[in-house]
Amino acid sequence: MKFSFQALLLLFFILSSSICAQDETINANLQANTPANVIINADPNITKLIKTKFAESNKDTYKIQLYYGGLNKAHSVLSNFNAKFTDWPGKIEYETPNYKVWVGNFQTRLDADRALMKISKSFPHAFIFKPEK
User: Fold this and answer.
1) Within a domain: residue 107?
2) Which of 67, 73, 75, 94 could form a disulfide with 101 if both were Cys (CB 3.0 to 4.6 A apart)?
3) Is residue 34 in a domain?
4) Mean pLDDT computed over every residue of the chain
């Protein structure tokens, strides 16, 4: 059985047009469907607990140091920081014979850099460091 070139060409166009029609049907079906909404009702304390647990277990983090010196000034710097910023926790660390004011527990250097950009407007001598394990 011999097929002519024109018959093969006609068969090719018929098959390709049916494939395109199926593509358009699939696209129309995808566009007609709306995304589903999922609502999760969870206690907000669970989120706090997870963040706290993750922060304690993951010691490979970055911090920002605001101050190094005497205890009275450290308390003053920490209270000043807490009044201006509530996004990051601050604490006083003791290293003989001075005190340090440390801020945050940033998982990545990028997170620490973003925070430093905001913090350095009020505390220009602040810097990022990675505590020793």
Assistant:
1) yes
2) 67
3) no
4) 81
Question: What type of residue sits at position 75?
Answer: H
pLDDT in tens, 5-48: 776 667 666 766 555 445 555 555 556 665 667 888 878 888 88
104 three-class SS = strand
Q: How far apart are CA 110 and CA 115, in angstroms?
A: 9
The HSE-up count of residue 76 (CA atoms within 13 Å, CB side) is 7
Residue 18 to residue 38: CA distance in whole angstroms: 37
In a domain, 115, yes or no: yes
The reported pTM is 0.55
Only one residue has tokens 């129309």, namely 28
Q: Give Cα 66 to chain centroid, integer Å.
A: 24
